[in-house]
């Protein structure tokens, strides 16, 4: 965590996060042209959150008959209700995946706006495998559903769902990913004082077969 993040984290009290409250997060919808009955409610034994299922429904519709949507297919009008929970990142090179959109609910929930930051920095023991998982999304292509623990200052863990889906490059040639983050257990009031400077423990990592298969289990990227 950089100096500015530390100052914010030290200086703030635990906030109430209305966008992370269960009644708000459970109602958001992607604005789709077609019904989404075909979109699974469960993947790999994990029941999808409402936000996770809605972003996946949008992605499937936006790609049409292509392996994946492109960055140019991202229509913020269709995603307006999901935007508070969205992470949108671009690969700047082989090692840097940078936040371009970091939703307002995620800012409120963590107390810090990660826009412009590399998702892999600062380095830690799991950076290589984390990077390989996300690079696999375009190589296959496929999606990735993870459950990771977010921690508060007391060391208590709060499992969160991370849904991540690939986007093909636009004119700038940069591959991108889009997805949502949402607590696995929606509460009436989110007051967690999140710590950003520790590894988010991985509980599950399930690749989503979007028509081209998933990475070979022998690679050790799933969990």
Low-confidence parts, pLDDT < 50 over ≥5 residues? 1-16
Averaged pLDDT, please?
87
* Morphology call: globular
Give a quick account of the main beta sheet: strands, pairing sense, barrel closure: 7 strands, antiparallel
Number of helices: 5
The tally of beta strands, per DSSP, is: 9
Rg estimate, integer Å: 17 Å
What share of the residues lie within helices?
Answer: 10-25%
Through-space gap between termini: 27 Å
SSE ordering: HHEEHEEHHEEEEE
Structural class: alpha+beta
Tell me the strand percentage band: 15-25%
General description of the model:
With 223 residues, the protein is of the alpha+beta class. It has helices spanning 3-11, 22-25, 50-63, 104-110, 127-139; strands at residues 42-43, 46-47, 86-91, 97-102, 143-152, 157-167, 176-183, 194-195, 202-208. A hairpin with a 5-residue loop joins strand 3 and strand 4 (97-102). Residues 1-16 have low confidence and may be disordered.
